[in-house]
Structures are given as C-alpha cells and as structure tokens.
Specification:
The chain is α/β, with parallel strands linked by helices. The chain has 7 helices and 9 strands.
C-alpha cells in the first residue's frame, strides 16, 4: 500500500537542526509539467559535518525525459518507487533543516510541486543557495554553474547530473563558501534559527506494496566524473540501495 497521511496530515515536531542539501533530476525543466525522476538528500549538522544520505531513482509515471542530460533510461526506473512512496521519508529528512542546493529555487520548486500533487503543502522553509554564495565568496570562478564552482574551489571530480553526486559536491561547496573569510556567520546562523521554528507536515511511513514487497530504493553510483556533453558518458552502476517498510 502507498503511505497515507496521519490524522489530518498534522504538523510534526522539527527534526534535528542542520542542513539538508538536495538535488533532483527531472523529466524536463517545468515543475508544473514535468516530474522528478531522481532525488538525493545529504544531511549536515549545524557544524557542517555529514550525518546521512538518501538517494533513489523514481518512477515518473511517464517518459524519463532528457536521457542525454541525466543518463537515466526508461528501463532504469522500472520497479522504482513513486514519489508518494518516499514522501514520508523525505519529510522526515527535511524537517527542521535549512534547504540547500545549487540554484536551490529549482530543486525547491520541483519538490514543492511533487508534494502538492499528493496534497501535502511544504512550509516556507529557509534556503541557502550555493550559486549565490559562490558569487559572493568564490569570485575567482569563471562561471557559476556547479561544475565551474567546483573547479574553482578545487573540490575535484564528481559524477555530474546524478542527484547524489551533485548533492555531495554541493555539500562540499557549501562548506567551502561558509568557511571563507568573507562569509559572515549570520549568513548561515540566521537560517538555522529560522528553520528550527518551522512546523512540518508528516505522513504515515511507507508501507509494503500490494504484493507485500517492501518499497525499494534504486540508487545510482558512478565511479568517475564529471561527465560532460560531447564526451563518452561513464557507466552508471544501478543498485538496490535498500527498502522501506512500515514498522507499524
């Protein structure tokens, strides 16, 4: 069964304080017309120390979109969870945290629309955009796309256009920018305080599918990167990263 809302989809106590670095890959550019096909979250505590990761491909209930960009094929999402099946876990991960992304308004818009489709309004969560931070604290960058910022910060290679690869390197870029001498502490302390006060909705935990099988997670891993258009794409390793089942 798909996860259902708790009574009235009530507000939950905030989770642990810190940052939720997110990245989504989508079937197109419009949050209103297109769907999330992969999502990743990297959690950092208040001191920017890594805590945990979550990542999975999603079944978008239609075409996967620009495979030449995200390199996700239709066969990759066969049997993958639908957004509603992982929504309860995402809410738990995001609650009480500052939402971080590179051009975070885009990731936020896609997540907001996916939650809206299942009748769950996201609260006005504080955000930090590493693109904006880089403009202020990484002036040597030749551009402010993620790859250019990562290169300017000397963060090394990463599997571009995979949700987990982008989220991991965005977390590193966040550390780099917030650690810059030009970055005042209130650039991040203020959003942390604000995030702790935001009430979050909650959903019932993911349950088994009608067949009785647990909800699977499909995780992509790439051994090297970044992959650039026009070059040979690295081989993607698709694994079952575990499963979600109700403990009730």
């Amino acid at each position: 069964m798909l996860p259902g809302p708790t009574s009235g989809t009530s507000e939950a106590p905030c989770g642990a304080p810190g940052f939720a670095v997110v990245d989504v890959e989508a079937t197109g550019r419009s949050p209103w017309r297109h769907r999330v096909v992969e999502v990743a979250v990297v959690l950092l505590d208040e001191r920017l120390r890594p805590e945990q990761e979550f990542a999975t491909l999603l079944d978008p209930l239609g075409p996967v979109g620009p495979t030449h960009v995200h390199r996700i094929c239709q066969a990759d999402v066969e049997g993958a969870p639908r957004f509603r099946e992982i929504a309860p876990r995402l809410l738990e991960l995001l609650a009480g945290r500052v939402l971080v992304g590179h051009h975070v308004s885009c990731d936020h818009a896609f997540l907001d629309r996916e939650f809206a489709r299942i009748g769950v309004p996201l609260p006005p969560v504080p955000v930090l955009c590493t693109m904006r931070l880089a403009r202020a604290h990484l002036p040597e960058a030749p551009g402010y796309g993620l790859a250019a910022c990562v290169e300017a910060a000397g963060l090394g290679r990463y599997p571009a256009h995979t949700a987990l690869g982008d989220a991991r390197v965005t977390a590193e870029l966040l550390r780099h920018c917030l650690g810059a001498a030009s970055c005042p502490p209130d650039d991040w302390a203020g959003p942390l305080r604000e995030a702790a006060r935001v009430p979050w909705p909650r959903l019932g935990r993911a349950r088994s599918r009608p067949s009785g099988a647990a909800v699977p997670l499909f995780r992509r891993e790439e051994p090297y990167g970044p992959w650039l258009p026009g070059s040979r794409a690295p081989e993607v390793v698709l694994t079952r990263a575990g499963a979600m089942r109700s403990t009730a």
